[in-house]
Design goal:
The protein is mainly alpha-helical and about 325 residues long. The chain has 14 helices and five strands. It has helices at about 15-30, 40-45, 55-70, 85-95, 100-105, 110-120, 130-135, 135-145, 160-175, 215-225, 245-250, 255-265, 270-300, 300-330; strands spanning about 5-10, 35-40, 75-80, 150, 185. The strands form two sheets. Strands 1-2-3 form a three-stranded parallel beta sheet. A two-stranded parallel ribbon has the order 4-5. About 35% of the residues are buried. The chain binds tryptophan. Tryptophan binds near residues 8, 10, 41 and 151. The site of tryptophan has 14 residues, from β1 and α8.
């Protein structure tokens, strides 16, 4: 029997290259070999976007379209919307007794997010809500509601999986062996740098190329990408290793082109403008297939609705079986 994997995504914006190389691409490879649940985590998105419900609602469909566009097959992947599975919310309440506030505050992912919020909004932590602090508990419910065995995630999510494992162990030790302890699945992915050279490509950093960016937008972004600052004149030799244009060439351009670019850049026989123009072309080629697939769904939005509806129905059945076991174990099965 195929093992169950579960992963999720907060619907707060479209997918960019960072998501694609950092996760999406590996999910496409996993879909053949596993029983794959993919959660559109709208409830989790609301923990820090509760004042912008329109944004979350719009992005449920946007992000589903992006995921289908990168090649996830709805016949192999069970897409579902978190908010439509009330059993997840129930489990969250039950699990919240099994984790201390201090432990949540020490969770490295939560800690980093709180620090980032303080930096962005300059508050002293007063505005961190109960819901936001508790989202790792809700994520543990996401995973265990489906008996998730493997959770394919980036390394930034490891503390959340660890938190889930602790909750599972605590649950099993008190109420009897009921839940499976999930294991993180770290596939070979690449963390993508931003156009500005920042170590991370991110929406809030304003340095991302989105899968849906049109050719004009891609042109503008690439023309503005950071190159070797020591290269002033067109024929100055330069260091491709500190150039974002070369960095993206390595991701999307044909292999032989890439080694030529490197040599020419080091020799000084290649100007940055030409190099950027070539990258624009290769980037557009690279994204072409993804955009074509997406267009099918853009033209037929009812397809996306059906995929989400059917997937959510199937997921709900599984969650209902699971909550039955949990309530029995907790002696609240009236
Ligand atoms: N926390 C994840 C993120 O921010 C999204 C997520 C929600 C998730 N539920 C999950 C990931 C369950 C793995 C498993 O991207």
């Amino acid at each position: 029997m195929k093992k169950t994997i579960l992963t999720g995504l907060r619907p707060t914006g479209n997918l960019h290259l960072g998501h694609y190389f950092g996760a999406g691409q590996s999910w496409v490879k996993l879909q053949d070999d596993y029983n794959f649940y993919l959660e559109i985590a709208d409830v989790q998105a609301l923990t820090d976007n509760f004042n912008d419900p329109e944004k979350v609602r719009k992005n449920v469909k946007e992000i589903t379209a992006d995921l289908l566009a990168i090649g996830l097959d709805p016949n192999k992947v069970n897409f579902f919307i978190q908010s439509q599975i009330p059993e997840i919310a129930e489990l969250t309440v039950f699990y919240s007794n099994l984790v201390t506030v201090a432990r949540l505050q020490r969770n490295p992912t939560v800690k980093a997010e709180i620090a980032q919020k303080k930096e962005l909004f300059g508050n002293d932590g007063e505005s961190i809500t109960y819901g936001f602090l508790g989202y790792p508990v809700s994520q543990a419910a996401d995973i265990t509601a489906f008996d998730g065995e493997l959770v394919p995630v980036g390394d930034d999510q490891l503390p959340l999986i660890e938190q889930c494992r602790e909750i599972v162990r605590k649950f099993n030790s008190i109420y009897g062996n009921t839940l499976k302890e999930p294991v993180p699945y770290l596939s070979k992915t690449t963390r993508i740098k931003g156009l500005d050279g920042n170590d991370k490509m991110g929406k809030s950093l304003g340095n991302a190329i989105y899968l849906i960016d049109d050719e004009e937008t891609i042109k503008k972004k690439i023309m503005g990408a950071i190159t070797d600052p020591n290269k002033i004149k067109k024929d100055d030799p330069a260091n491709p290793d500190i150039c974002m244009v070369y960095y993206y060439h390595k991701l999307v351009s044909p292999k032989d082109t890439v080694s030529n670019i490197c040599k020419e850049c080091q020799k000084g026989s290649r100007g940055c403008v030409l190099c950027k123009k070539e990258l624009i072309e290769h980037m557009n080629n690279y994204l072409k297939e993804i955009k074509e697939r997406r267009k099918k769904y853009e033209d037929n939005p009812e397809l996306i609705e059906k995929i989400l509806k059917d997937g959510t129905e199937k997921a709900r059945k599984k969650a209902q079986e699971q909550i039955k076991k949990v309530k029995q174990a907790m002696k609240i099965d009236y």
